[in-house]
Amino acid sequence: MKAPYFQSQRTALYEEAGERLLSQGKAYRCYCTPEELQAKRETAQAEGRQPAYDGTCRDYTPEPGDTRPFTVRFKSPKEGETSIDDLIKGRVVFQNQELDDLILVRSDGSPTYNFCSVFDDADLRISHVVRGDDHLSNTPRQVLIFQALDATPPAFAHLPLILGPDRVRLSKRHGATSVTAYREMGYLPDALVNFIARLGWSHGDEEIFSRAELIQKFHLADVGKSAGVFNAEKLEWLNFQYQQAREPAHITQEVKPFLTDKGYSLPDDVQLSRMLKTLQPRAKTLVELAAASHFYLTETVTFEEKAAKKFLTQDGLTIVEKVRGKLKTAPDWTEEALHAVFTSLMEELELKLGKIAQPIRVALTGGTASPGIFEVMEVLGKEQTLARLDTALTTVRDGNTNVSA
Prior knowledge:
Elements: H1 11-23, E1 27-30, H2 34-46, E2 71-74, E3 81-86, E4 90-95, E5 103-105, H3 113-123, E6 128-132, H4 139-148, E7 155-159, E8 162-163, H5 179-184, H6 189-198, H7 211-217, E9 228-229, H8 232-245, H9 248-261, H10 269-279, H11 286-292, H12 294-297, E10 303-304, H13 305-311, H14 314-328, H15 335-349, H16 353-365, H17 373-397, E11 403-404
Parallel strand pairs: 6-7, 8-9, 10-11
Antiparallel strand pairs: 1-2, 2-5, 3-4
Helix pairs in contact: 3-4, 6-8, 9-10, 9-11, 10-17, 14-15, 14-16, 14-17, 15-17, 16-17
């Protein structure tokens, strides 16, 4: 059988292994009904004992032709101990008398998880089983099944669980818990891999690792035994570092799906990359980057109410008009040339840069927070810059301002 492997296609192998354990006396048929098992559990609870199968059928020999439904239980040793040399937790010892005879095959003939997983690991020669330490309690039972199958158990490494900020096991009530959800929230895959790898593992004081560095430096022996706390702010910081270091061409392709989901009509990659480059220093996630792109990609600028009231006053519109007149005749459209235009106006109007730049910023972007005004104008281009200034002058003076609260 070739990979990929599906347990549903390996039923015959599990049945054969179950029959082999029965014939060797390492497993037995259990005829206890669900009602009888429930009664045993209730009795144990009433007596303050941990509910566990009491071995009623362990030494029972069924009559020939017995057609009652049965499960197949593992005949766990009742003396001695089972130890695991865990690669993270060290030696962990379990007393065999505390292990009950777990079910290997259900009454409908389907194998249980513990039986399937052990058989598959043995059959496929799995060398290491790395999983959360909430599976540690299953391990002694699985080791005993490996031994019953005459197979060598793999090396086990039980990772500490990830906790929420309240130091309770991470769950949906703490927010997103799936990789897909974090992708949809705009986190870069490499940042998330880096973040998860650092939960419970460290390599000196280093925080940022490429995948190649993680492959080279990560060792299970360096993983701590204590649970790691999921710090959303740390993930956001880490994603910001990755996003800032990203090549513009890569960022452009990664943010595109978020922009198309918003219904924007996108320019060519070169122009989109120029836009994003001005926004990249502030955005912590791809979602933030897409949201910040709105003023570049929208067909109609919507003015923030507070910004419009403060800067698109009569005096502000006079400044917009004067700037528009200067820009219309500007021979060059570079940051340096645009800065020179504003410098001349500052001298002419005897105003500081902020007094001139803010009304222009609001007219072009709709708000007071944006990349440098000369960057924005250069990216928008002369035609669109002049058109937006015209729109601001017309709509505000006509009282038809597109305002958002």
